[in-house]
């Protein structure tokens, strides 16, 4: 997995489809990403000379900082994690805990890589799932027990010789008569033709309650997963569910995919992917620089900066999948810096975040655009949600303007939470339709300026009430 080759302009074009304004920030992230790609094209000597150019996003809450970074990762299919820097100042945290951000990034890389590998084996996995379905729909008689045990032992022996975990394969324990073979053939035909999708079938699956639970911080720090180690040695507990064929096929395809993919490749590729394309978003980085308010008992802020520094500078972190090098990861620091400045961070850390970009506060006009323009904008989401109750909602332009105006006012009069205010206002605005919609034949509903005023306008004028409700 190598770095994306999209140009900064191409990346900004896609970001524009989701995020309104903040052009400087969009450009900066796209350039930072391209710089990493550029650095990786150079000789090792040259790479060592050029330190990675990480980015600091400065701006108030809810103006798109996280959204830009998360979207960037999605566009280039890169592993992404967001951590709150303040988490490491909490009582009980110790220095090594900061490495958990790298481990979480690798977990995310595994998910992305697994999805890619599933795609590669999908055709074969689905074929196997359909074969299995046929056998479940037309079961054969079980073989005699003694014969069965012998067969099982031989199967397990062969599997172990091939380096696999032994498992008893049910197919080999069946007595398939001609009659059953014929029935299976006709079932396979029906299955192919999609005639059995709603038939019920019993399938066996891993018991989810046996999946890894929490474990000690110390083990995490060492990159050891006890559950993984043990689960490799002990047989997994199985549970049975009766589900429609369509759902069974999905579950069986997933099970087959898991067996078809090569785990060693999966872990290796995921680590390479995290190392070369990973993005770590460190939120509230301003809160680990000295400021007015430090709670007693908090871990020293400078200490946390010193713990984070080696990771940002490039170091090796142990994970349960292997050692990960952080040299080429892209780090994006983010914060309001209302009570302090980036220059209050320790100089070494400042030097690692040389690209600085300020995000603007959002205006009423921005809110209008956020409500309407982005792919899957908030209003489009609500229209789709309510549409599932056969109600067609439309918003007039005046209503949108009024929502944006109210959001700006409430942000001004209470706390400024940026575009998050639009979420709370829309939820309040549409609460009756969301509640009563499914029971009433509402037909088409037009949200007008008056409707907005009646539902949220008056509320917004009451500072105390709006603090709680909007
Ligand atoms: N410029 C924007 N365009 C479109 N949507 C936006 C914009 N700014 C914020 N939003 C929406 O508002 C919500 C909050 O934004 P986001 O998570 O990016 O905030 P933030 O700037 O990272 O704040 P914080 O530092 O508090 O995490 C998201 O749902 C996001 O989609």
From TrEMBL:
Gene3D superfamilies (alphabetical): 1.10.8.60, P-loop containing nucleotide triphosphate hydrolases
Pfam families, alphabetized: AAA, AAA_2
Gene Ontology terms: biological process: proteolysis involved in protein catabolic process
Keyword presence, Chaperone: yes
Superkingdom as given in the UniProt entry: Bacteria
Domain Clp ATPase C-terminal: 362-461
UniProt KW keywords: ATP-binding, Chaperone, Nucleotide-binding, Stress response
Name of this protein: Heat shock protein HslVU, ATPase subunit HslU
């Amino acid at each position: 997995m190598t770095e994306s080759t999209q140009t900064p302009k191409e990346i900004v074009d896609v970001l524009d489809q989701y995020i309104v304004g903040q052009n400087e920030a969009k450009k900066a992230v796209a350039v930072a990403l391209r710089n990493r790609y550029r650095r990786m094209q150079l000789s090792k000597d040259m790479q060592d000379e050029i330190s990675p150019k990480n980015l600091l996003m400065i701006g108030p809450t809810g103006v798109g900082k996280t959204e830009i970074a998360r979207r960037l990762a999605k566009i280039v299919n890169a592993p992404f994690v967001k951590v709150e820097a303040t988490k490491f100042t909490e009582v009980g945290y110790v220095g090594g805990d900061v490495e958990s951000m790298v481990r979480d990034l690798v977990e995310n890389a595994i998910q992305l890589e697994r999805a890619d590998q599933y795609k590669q084996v999908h055709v074969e996995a689905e074929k196997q799932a359909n074969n299995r379905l046929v056998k479940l729909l037309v079961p054969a008689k079980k073989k005699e027990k003694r014969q069965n045990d012998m067969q099982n032992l031989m199967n397990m022996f062969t599997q172990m010789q091939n380096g696999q975990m032994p498992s008893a394969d049910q197919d080999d324990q069946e007595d398939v008569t001609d009659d059953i073979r014929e029935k299976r053939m006709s079932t396979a035909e029906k299955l192919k033709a999609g005639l059995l999708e709603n038939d019920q079938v019993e399938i066996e699956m891993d018991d989810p309650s046996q999946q890894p639970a929490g474990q000690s911080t110390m083990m995490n720090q060492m990159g050891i997963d006890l559950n993984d180690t043990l689960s490799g040695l002990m047989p997994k507990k199985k549970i049975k569910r009766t589900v429609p064929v369509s759902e069974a096929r999905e579950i069986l395809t997933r099970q087959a995919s898991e067996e078809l993919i090569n785990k060693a490749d999966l872990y290796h590729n995921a680590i390479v992917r995290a190392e070369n394309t990973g993005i770590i978003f460190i939120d509230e980085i301003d809160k680990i620089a000295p400021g007015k308010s430090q709670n007693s008992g908090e871990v020293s802020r400078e200490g946390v900066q010193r713990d984070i520094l080696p990771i940002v500078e490039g170091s090796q972190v142990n994970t349960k999948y292997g050692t990960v090098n952080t040299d080429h990861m892209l780090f994006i620091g983010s914060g309001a810096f209302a009570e302090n400045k980036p220059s209050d961070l320790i100089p070494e850390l400042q030097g690692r975040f040389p690209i600085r970009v300020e995000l603007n506060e959002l205006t009423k006009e921005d809110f209008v655009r956020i409500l309407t323009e982005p792919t899957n904008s908030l209003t489009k989401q609500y229209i789709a949600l309510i549409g599932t109750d056969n109600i067609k909602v439309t918003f007039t332009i005046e209503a949108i303007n009024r929502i944006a105006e109210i959001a700006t006012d409430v942000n001004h009069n209470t706390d400024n939470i940026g575009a998050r205010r639009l979420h709370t206002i829309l939820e309040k605005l549409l609460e009756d339709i969301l509640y009563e919609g499914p029971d009433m034949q509402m037909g088409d509903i037009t949200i007008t300026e008056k409707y907005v005023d009646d539902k949220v306008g008056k509320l917004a004028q009451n500072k105390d009430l709006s603090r709680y409700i909007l």
